[in-house]
Structure formats: C-alpha cells, structure tokens
Amino acid sequence: MEHLINPNVQQIEISGIRKFYNLVSEIDGVLSFTIGLPDFPTPEHIKEQAIAAIERDMTTYTHNAGTLALREAISNFMAEKYSLNYDPASEIIVTVGASQAIDIAFRTILKNGDEVIIPGPVYPGYEPLIKLAGAVPVYADTTATSFKMTKDVLEPHITEKTKCIVLPYPSNPTGVSLTKEELAEIADFLRGRDIFVLADEIYSELTLDREHTSIGSMLKEQAIIINGLSKSHAMTGWRIGILMAPSGVAKHMLKVHQYNVSCASSISQMAALEAMQNGKDDAIRMKDEYKKRRDYVYGRFKQMGLSTVLPDGAFYFFVKIPEGFQTSLDFSLELVRSQKIAVVPGSAFSSYGEGYFRFSYAVSMESLMEGLDRLELFLKER
Q1: Confidence of residue 259 (pLDDT cuts 50, 70, 90)
Q2: Among residues 324, 65, 312, 295, which one has the least CA distance to residue 203?
Q3: pTM exceeds 0.85, yes or no
Q4: What whole-number distance in Å separates Cα of residue 171 and Cα of residue 179?
Q5: Dist. CA 272–CA 279, nearest whole Å
Q6: DSSP string, 147-197
Q7: The pLDDT of residue 7
Q8: Could you tell me the end-to-end alpha-carbon distance of the chain, in angstroms, rounded to an integer?
Q9: Residue 141 and residue 180: Cα distance in Å, rounded?
Q10: CA spacing 20 to 30 A to 382: which of 23, 115, 235, 240?
C-alpha cells in the first residue's frame, strides 16, 4: 500500500540531525555535541505553577489561540523585549512548539508552485514543511557572507513565484544573527512587495553580544514571527510555541491550527504564563553560561587551527572540517569511531553545509573540556 502514500510525504526524509544522533546513540561512551537541547532544567517557579494548575483541575480545552491571559502576557513580553506590537486578541496564536507554528504558517500562505527562499546552510525543518505545502524551497548560498542572509544574497533569487523569505536568526546551525542595520536593509528591499517574511526567532533570548532585533518591528505588515519557550526557558518538552502575524493573516492561520491540534496543552500554557509574567530574566543565567562556553570553545578551535565564524547567538558552532576528508559525514563518522565524539555532519543542513560540522555547546563545561581534548588528540594523530 506504500504506493498510495502522498508523493509530497514520500519525498521528504527524517532529519539528518536525528539520523546521526540515532546512529551514534548506539555506541557506548560517546560524548554527544549533536542535539540543540538546553542542559538547564526548567526554572522552579514555572514548574510550580504547572503543578498548581494540575491541582486546580485546569485540564480542559482552552481557546484555540491559547488563553487570553497568556496571549496578553506574550504581547507585553514581546513589546518590552523587542518593540513588537501584536494584539493579543487577534494577532497571537499559542502553538504546540515553534515547529507547529512554522507548519501552520506555511500551510496557510503557500500553494502549489510557490517559492520560498531560505538561507543555506539552514536548520533542516523548513524544507520538508515547504514541500508538504506543495511549494518549492529555493536555497540562497550564505557561505560567503559569514552565513548571513543579505539583500545582495537574496535579490538574485526573487522571482514572480516568490511567496516567502525565511529569516532564521539567531541561526541553527551557525549561531550567527543579523544586526539591526542588516535587517533594515532587507526590510527596505522587501517593503511593499507581495512577499511574506517568516522570521524564526526561537533563539531571540540567547543573543550573546547584543540585544536581539526583530524584523517584525520594521515590517509588521509582511512579517510572520515565530518564537517559543523551548530555548529561552529550557522548556523543550512543554511544547509551547508562539506565532505572531497581522490579524488579516493570523485569522486564517488560526483555522489551520484549530483543525490541526485544537489548542496547546492547558497545563503547559499555565507554565508559559508564569514564564512570560515572572520569568522575563530567566534566560540571563543561561545566556551568561553559554557565553563562557562559547568563548572557551572558540579559543580551543583556534588553537587547533579549525576555521569557524564566531557565533553571537544560540549555542552552536559551524566549523570547517579539516583537510583530508572528502565529506562531512566521513569526518563525523571517523571522529566518533576514533574518539567517541559525536558532532553533526554539515550536510544535514543542506548541500551548502557540506564541508562543515555543527558543534553544540549546550552541554556542561566538563563535557566540553573532555570532548575538545579528544578532538585535539584526533587531529594530532591524523
């Protein structure tokens, strides 16, 4: 019966990140730097409110878009942090993680044959969702611009079929973000065109060298803003995402969301309410620790002669593989076999990621020290 499966589903594959993670997880003693999972627990005050919500039997459906109290708290949080102004009643949807927000956004705005421009290398979760919506992903090579989407990189890919631009910054897998000036140039270039900008800002609270700027503060009428609590509040398993868009667009996204999941978990929403109201600075402790780790890892990479761009957000390095390896997969497999260190082959992040590997420093300093010692030994023994 497999021949009856939707061709759009048949052509997509399991994420290369997960493929490699599953492969190395079967090897004993591996130090893994593969998954983008904060190594901090969810803050206690958030967990306490979730427990209290259960005890108060707050276990029923909520409004499809999420409780109004939570949407109001999100609106206040985003206005205070990023100068974003979205009406909680009509322009904010609470989703089941940022991934579902991206999915319903694409399914709402895309039709067969539309083109979506995404920077390469990039997180592998966008392309399958674009294809499932019947649209065509168009990669823009950012390897010559320190992995940044710029107006000059973007412009040659604009066609009459272009429906959306994806701006995933701070970036997974590269850790780079765009400055206010760089975003303004893109906003000015796109303003007035019939093109959406989907800005995936899930790492917005983890910018390490400057405050995050959202293109939604410059181009609200064309922007779809994706965010969530997974990275900012170490709440990956709670599955709370945030979608913000102008009311004329959001009302249609809400229909897709409604028939997809009805609403996000009521208990997770109560935890999210606490995070938005009383956890506005929860990310600071994590961010301070990530910055220490980043600086340590960057110094070690430089000592080893490895080439990488200094990331200013998220918790990843995207590093050129040493000479002598044909592919990033060859390098990653040899590394895990020789020294039991797992990194993600750059090819998992599109063809533009070939020749690199992603290294996540969302692990303890002790693990980083041990892992980088093993990497250094691997390089010396070659």
Answers
A1: very high
A2: 312
A3: yes
A4: 13
A5: 9
A6: T---HHHHGGG--TTEEEEEE--S-TTT-----HHHHHHHHHHHTTSS-EE
A7: 85
A8: 49
A9: 21
A10: 23
Q: Give the type of residue at 207.
A: T
> DSSP readout, 207-255?
BSSS----GGGT-GGGEEEEEESTTTTT-GGG--EEEE--HHHHHHHHH
Which position has the token pair 């007035």?
192
Q: Give 172-212 pLDDT, tens digit per residue.
A: 999 999 999 999 999 999 999 999 999 999 999 999 999 99
* Residue 299: burial class (beta carbons within 10 Å; 0-12, 13-18, 19+): exposed
Residue type, 365: M
List b or e across 214-249, with b for residues whose CB sees 16 or more CB atoms inside 10 angstroms. bbbbbbbebbbbbbbbbbbbbbbebbbbbbbbbeeb
**Entry field: residues in the chain:** 382
Distance, CA of 303 to CA of 70 (rounded, Å): 47
Contact yes or no for 87/247 (Cβ under 8 A): yes
Which helix or strand (DSSP H or E) is residue 21 part of?
helix 16-24
Of 362, 290, 279, nearest in space to 47 by CA: 279
